[in-house]
Specification:
By secondary structure, the protein is an alpha+beta fold. It contains six helices and seven strands.
Length: 193
């Protein structure tokens, strides 16, 4: 059974993103997140123009622009051919080697001001939902509470400043929203310019 897509506010989407695009368990809607967009560009891996192109991060020592079609991401050929990863393994502690490989080498990454990283819940990588502001995050109180706790652990001890920062997410700083693929719990981390 595949992951049901949802928009940033948590509303489940009725239909798959596109019957033509591959499904990504850990990034269910890469069009909404902006990681994949319509394009007439040629894939750097298969050298085909497929109508869609990857636009986010790709880490490799090779000289490549990182513009790949979703199919070369999904089957792992882009990561294998260019010895690269779409996301860093930071944050993926405790997941299986197969999950680590799936997220870093066969799942579209996403853009962030700081180095993007994946969140984990229930011993599995969470699904990336998208970049959100406070109003979208407010729809997921468990993610907002978890973010509050993480920021306190990172040194945000002044409650007034912390709440001011959270209330202004979407204005220079955002939150990266994830959903657990096992229990459905939402998680988030702050990303600031």
């Amino acid at each position: 059974m595949g992951v049901i897509s949802e928009d940033a506010s948590g509303r489940q989407l009725d239909a798959p993103v596109s019957a033509d695009l591959p499904t990504f368990r850990y990034h269910p809607d890469p069009l909404a997140s902006g990681s994949i967009r319509e394009s007439t560009e040629t894939c750097e891996c298969c050298h085909r123009t497929r109508g869609w192109i990857y636009t986010a991060t790709f880490y490799t020592a090779q000289d490549v622009n990182g513009r790949f079609c979703p199919w070369c991401i999904a089957d792992g050929s882009a990561a294998e051919r260019f010895a690269g990863e779409f996301t860093d393994s930071y944050g993926l502690e405790g997941v299986t080697e197969a999950t680590l490989h799936e997220v870093t080498r066969r799942t579209p990454g996403f853009r962030a001001w700081e180095d993007p990283h994946w969140l984990v819940h229930c011993h599995d990588a969470a699904a990336f939902i998208g970049e959100v502001g406070y109003s979208e995050l407010e729809a997921h109180p468990e993610a907002l509470d978890q973010l509050r706790q993480d920021l306190r652990m990172d040194g945000w001890h002044d409650a007034t400043q912390l709440e001011r920062f959270l209330n202004h997410l979407g204005e220079g700083a955002t939150a990266m929203l994830f959903r657990c693929t096992i229990c459905g719990t939402h998680l988030a981390y702050a990303d600031a310019s």
